[in-house]
Amino acid sequence: MSGFFIAENLSELSEGDTVFLSDREQRHACLSRRIRVGEEIGLTDTMGRTANARVTVSSQPGTITARIMNLTLHKPNRVTVSLLQALCRRASAESAVRSAVELGVDRIVPWKSDRSFNSSSRRWSSIAREAAKQSRRAWFPVVKADIPSERLVEEIGDSLAIILDPGSNTRLSSLGNLFLQRKSVFLLIGPEGGITREEISTIPGICCSLGIETLKSSTASVAALSLVNFFLGRW
Q1: pLDDT digits (tens, 9 = 90+) for 12-32
Q2: What is the β-pairing status of strands 63-73 and 49-59?
Q3: Cα(57)–Cα(63) distance, rounded to whole angstroms?
Q4: What's the pTM value of the predicted model, to 2 decimals?
Q5: Beta strands 107-112 and 80-86, pairing class
Q6: How far apart are CA 63 and CA 28, in angstroms?
Q7: Which residues neighbour 40 within 8 Å (Cβ) at sequence distance 6 or greater?
Q8: Domains and CATH numbers, the chain
Q9: Whether 9 contacts 51, CB under 8 Å
Q10: Are 110 and 146 spatial neighbours (Cβ–Cβ below 8 Å)?
Q11: Which tens digits make up the pLDDT trace of 177-196?
């Protein structure tokens, strides 16, 4: 398959129909991927529907049409996994977002923690979109607006909240059974300076660590999500 593109009107189409990509997706297909007539491409509406299609027209500077070969409707994940990622150094934060999407996270919430850098989550949505396309996801993750620590309780609600704290004696690997009992899970990843004791005392969650090592924020999110995927049977 030559590429994976967004076609938001897939829900209106059937097998054998012709699909027209948006200008943005057409430019990417023609100029970046150099898709040719006869090649097979993948499509998603970002809301659980995917399709395989064969290109019928491909011309410069950017026109692509394709005929749908088959359509698939994917169920959403039984347990919603949300990443509450503290704002940190730009490169570290954006790496965490990209990896989290590739690992299947359902929601990303930028968190202005007490020790967060004065950085921005402005690019997180576009990074998440491209990472979802690269990993050929049927359901694209939701990237929410920044929230301060004061809104964590409201955001988490009655979901299971796992707070990554390198000082905790509880290992995340020992909490597997808890994940099967909830419909929603939050992973809280602090900035490089860590989560303050004051913040931890106000968050209704379980503190745990990933071992004796202290991991970078971007590494911690990858390690934690990998374990969560295993607990939930996604892998």
Answers
A1: 999 999 998 888 887 777 766
A2: antiparallel
A3: 7
A4: 0.90
A5: parallel
A6: 10
A7: 1, 2, 52, 53, 54, 55, 69
A8: 3-73 (2.40.240.20), 80-232 (3.40.1280.10)
A9: no
A10: yes
A11: 999 888 999 999 999 888 99
